Amino acid sequence: MIVELGHFALIVAFAVAIVQTLVPLIGAWKGWSGWMAVASPAATAQVALVAFSFAALTYAFVTSDFSLQLVVLNSHTDKPMLYKVSGVWGNHEGSLLLWVLILALFGAAAAWFGGQLPATLKARVLAVQASVGVAFYAFILFTSNPFTRLEVPPFNGEDLNPLLQDPGLAFHPPFLYLGYVGLSMAFSFAVAALLEGKVDAAWGRWVRPWTLAAWLFLTVGIALGSWWAYYELGWGGFWFWDPVENASFMPWLIAAALLHSAIVVEKREALKAWTILLAILAFGFSLIGTFIVRSGVLTSVHAFANDPERGVFILMILGFFTGGALLLYAVRAPVMQAKGVFGVVSRESALVANNLLLAVSCFVVFIGTIWPLVAELAFDRTLSVGPPFFDAAFTPFVIALAAILPLGSILPWKRGRAAALRNLIPVAILALAVTGLVWAMQTGNSLGGPLGAGLGVWLVAGALVDLATRTGRGRWSERLGRVTRLPGADWGKALAHGGLGITIFGVAALTAWQQEEIAVLDIGDTLTLGRYEVVLNDVTRVQGPNYFATRADLTAYEDGSELGHLFPEKRIYPVAQMPTTEAGIDSGITRDVYAVIGDAQTGGGWAVRVYIKPFANWIWGGAIIMALGGVVSLTDRRYRVAAGARRQRLDGVPAE
Amino acid sequence: MRAALFAAFVMLASPALAVEPGEILADPVLEERARDLSKGLRCLVCRNESIDESSAELARELRVLVRERLVAGDTDAQVIDFLVARYGEYVLLNPTTGGSNMILWIAPLVLLLLGGTVAVVAITRQRAPGETLNAAEEAQLKALMDDESKG
C-alpha cells in the first residue's frame, strides 16, 4: 500500500511540476503577480511529494518487500542495513528517483531562501527548474518506474552488486548527484536571466553560492569514488579515466570555471555572456554525464542498441535543454553588456586564462571520452582511448593552471601592475628549490615527481602569501590578529587553492614513486620491498553476513620495527556470484603499505602482492581541503549582509 | 593438458591478482619493459582495464604473449605491431596519431589557440559603456550644445 502511495505521489509531483513550469512563466511574461506567486508553494509541494515517494521506496528496501521488482533485483535479506538503504540508489530506477528528489530540493531551497530575488526572476528560475523536473519525472514514470510490482514475489532477492556494498560507495552517489543536480540551479538562473534580458552583480551574487555548493558536493563525490577505487579494486589505482568517471569530472571542471567567472560578474560586472554560457554548459555536461552513465552507450555501443528506449529519452532531454538554452543564448546574449573594463594585466585577465584552461581541459576529457564512439560511427574504426591519452593530453593543462594560479589570485582587479607579484618571488624561489632538491634526492629520473612537489609548494605557499598580503601592513602581531578576521571568502579561496596543490603533489608522488613486489609466500615467509618487510602469518576462511572470504594475516615492518597487522581479503558473494578483493592497508602520512592476497598456488603457498604507495592520502586529503574551502567560503558573512542590507533599507524609510 | 584445464578452472573460479608470480620474467630489464607495454594494452574482454591491471584469463594470456615476444627478441614496437595485427587497434589504450585520430590529438590544441586569440582580442578591444556616445546620445548632446549657444 505504501509503495502504491509512493508511486501516486510521484505522479502528483509530475503534475505539480507541469503547473510550476507554465503558470509562473506566463505570470512573469504578463506581469501577473498572482500567477508568479504559484511557483513557491508548488516547489514546496513538489519536494514534499518526491520525498514521500523516495521514503516509500526506501521503506520497501528496508523491509525487504520482494513483491517489488527493484528490491528483488538489488537486495537480499542477509544484506547489512546500511546497504539495504544504499541499495535504493544503487540501481538505475532508484538513482533517478534520488536525482529528482535532489532537483526538487534545490528548487524548494531557491523558493525558501529566495525572498530577496526580484519577483519575475524568482518565478522564472523556479519555472525553469520545474521544467527540468517535468522531463525527468516523465523519464522515470514512462521508462524507469521503480514501483513495478511482481505478480509472484520470490522468497529472497538477488543481492546488490557486491562492489557497491562498501561504505565509500554507499555515500558516493548522493554526493555526486547533489553536485550534478546542484548545477541545475546555475542553469535555471542562466535561462531566467536570458529571459529577463538582464545580468548584473546581484545575479552573480545569487548564482555563486549555488554553484559553489554544487562544486563542493561534486568534489566530495569524486574524491569518495576515487578513494573507493583505490582500496577496493585491488591494485591501488585512484583514477582510471573511465567514461563514468569522466562523466563526473567534466561538470566539475566547468563548475570550477563557472565559480571563477561568476566572481568577475559579481565584483566587476564583466564576462557576463561567457558566465551564462558556462552555466548552461555546466548543467549540459551533467546531463551528458547522466546520459553516459544511464544509457551505457560508451561501455558498449551494442548494449545501447539493444535497449535504446532510455538512452534516446535522455538524449532528447539533453538536446532539448542544452540546445534550447544555447539557442536562447544565441538570441539574447548580445543584450548582456559588460560594465567593468580591465587591463591586460589584471585579476580579470588571469581569471579569463583560468576559464580558458579549464574549459579546454574539459574538452580534452570530452573528446577522449566520446572519440571511440565517433571513430566507430564516422570512420569505421574500432579503437580505445585510454589513460595514456588522457595523461598526455590533460596533464599540461593542470601544470599551466597551477603555474598561473598564485599569480592571478594575487593580482589586483581592474588594472594591475607586475609589481604586485613581488610578494611571490620568495615562493617561486622556494618552489624551484624544492623541485631541484626532490630531483636530486629521488631514485630514478621521473620528471613528474619533482614537478608535482614544486607545483604543490608553489600553490600552498602562494595561498599563504595571498592570505598574508590581505592583512595589509603593520606589525606582524597586528597582521596575525587581522588574518583571523578575514572574510570567509578569503579563507575559502586559500584553502581551495592550497588543497589543489596538495592533491597535485599526491597524484604526482604516487605516480612517480610507487613500488611493487609480487611473491609466492608460504605461512611464515617474508616479502621484502625496500625498507619494508611483510610476513605471512596465517590464511583463514571467514564468513561474513552475505559473503565468504579468504583472509590473510600479514605483519608489516618498516626498517625492522613492526607497523601492525594487515588483513587483506578475497571475498565471494554467493548470491550475486561475484568475487571482490579487500586490500589490507597500513595508512600513513608519507606512505601507505598496501597488501593484496591472491590465489593459493598449485605448488603450495599464496600469491601476495605488496605496494608502497607514497603520499597516497594526500590525494583525497587535498580534495577534502578543497571542499572545505567551499564550505568556508559559503559561510562568508557578505552573502547574508547583502540580504540584510536590503531589508534595512525597506524598513528604514522615514515617515514624513 | 589436465593440469592446464585445472589451472584454467581455478582462474575462472576466483580471479585474483593481475600479474601472477609465475609470469614474471627472470630478466628484470625485460620484465620492466613487459610491464610498461602491458599498461598500454587493453584487456579486450574487460571494461576499461589494461592487461597489467586485469585479472581476466584473456589478460593473463596476453601478458604471457607479450613476455614471449620480448624473450624472443622483439622490440617494443614489434610487440605492439604483432598485437595490433592480431586484435586490431582496439587493443591500444594509447590511440595512434594516424588518420582520423589526428583530430583527437589536435582538436584541443586548436581550441586552445582559438580561445586564446578570442580572449586576447576581446580583452584588448573592450570598451566600457559610457566611454563613447552612441548616435542618439551624440544628437542629444548636439541639441543641448545648440540650446546653450542660442541661449
TrEMBL record, chain A:
Keywords: Cell inner membrane, Cell membrane, Cytochrome c-type biogenesis, Membrane, Transmembrane, Transmembrane helix
Single Gene Ontology BP annotation: cytochrome complex assembly
All residue ranges annotated as the Cytochrome c assembly protein domain in the record: 89-295
GO molecular-function terms, A-Z: heme binding; heme transmembrane transporter activity
Chief location: membrane
Family: Belongs to the CcmF/CycK/Ccl1/NrfE/CcsA family.
Pfam families according to UniProt: CcmF_C, Cytochrom_C_asm
Protein name from the UniProt record: Cytochrome c-type biogenesis protein CcmF
Protein's organism: Jannaschia donghaensis
TrEMBL record, chain B:
Residue ranges annotated for the CcmH/CycL/Ccl2/NrfF N-terminal domain, each copy included: 7-145
Biological processes per GO annotation: cytochrome complex assembly
Regions that span the bilayer: 102-123
GO molecular function, one term: metal ion binding
Classification via Pfam families: CcmH
A single GO cellular-component term on record: plasma membrane
Function text: Possible subunit of a heme lyase.
Protein name: Cytochrome c-type biogenesis protein
Annotated source species: Jannaschia donghaensis
